[in-house]
Amino acid sequence: MAELKNRLRGLLELSRSFQQQLIADLDPAERNANGTWENWSVKDELAHVIAWQLNSLARLAALLHAEALPDFSETEKINRAIYNTNHDRTLAEIIAEGDRACADFMQLVDSLSEEDLIQPARFSDQEPRSLAAQIMGNGYEHPIFHYAEHYRRRGELAQATQLHEASVAAVADWPEWSGLMRYNLACFYALSGQKEKAWHELREALQLRPDLREWSKQDTDLASLRDDPAYPAL
Q1: pTM for the full model?
Q2: Contact at 8 Å (CB) between 142 and 105?
Q3: What are the b/e assignments for 94-122, b being 16+ CB within 10 Å?
């Protein structure tokens, strides 16, 4: 029991450390910058990540209390609402909200048994994913994707690469999450023009997570690979 819970806590802490490093790397102008819907500032990026953590926590609470599950299926509409709601808030306010979300995830992990965490559809047939998978999704994978993407858009490829590779290494023995994190790494390499590395990671990712194969055929992040003669072989 303790092993899974310690693993989740450690990965949540790792994700949090990446966020703290991202914030520490900002200069004063970036800390106070307002972005646009088309070009998010780091504050917009963090607000988006943290809002989805709060959404995840709300859904988890509903599952645990046998309440009606909130519907977060209209992601584009929700993302726009998150942006509008947080646009004029300060970075300090958003960081404080993130601290609370992280603490709530930790408290939730501590309060649950391994069986509660790992069993799919444990509390409702309407939610087939395990609680651990939901915690990992918005507590680990989704934040790291956005932090690395922020570095990539700034042209800081070394930082983005380091973050992606560290996040893959941390789940190397967990096939479900190793596959997804390697898929994200493949997308990063494709977007940054590193096709050979992208191909390698994509092949490895799809071996671990064949359920991502259909999505990969339409994922715009992988568009640069589709003209390659090797692509149909995937």
Answers
A1: 0.92
A2: no
A3: bbebbeebbebbbebbeebeeebbeeeeb
Name the nearest CA neighbour of 139 among 56, 45, 80.
56
- Model pLDDT for residues 35-77, shown as the tens digit of each residue: 999 999 999 999 999 999 999 999 999 999 999 999 999 999 9
Beta carbons of 225 and 198 less than 8 angstroms apart = yes
Q: Which element (helix H / strand E) includes 107? A: helix 91-111
Return the amino acid letter for 101: A
Domain boundaries, the chain: 2-133
Separation in Å, CA 168 to CA 42, 60, 199: 23, 25, 16
The CATH code of domain 2-133 reads 1.20.120.450
| Burial per residue of 175-192, b for 16 or more beta-carbon CB atoms within 10 angstroms, e otherwise | eebbbbbbbbbbbbbbbb
Among 143, 131, 126, which residue's Cα sits nearest to residue 57? 131
Residue 1: predicted pLDDT: 43
Q: Give per-residue pLDDT as tens, 140-193.
A: 999 999 999 999 999 999 999 999 999 999 999 999 999 999 999 999 999 999
The Cα–Cα gap between 75 and 134 comes to 16
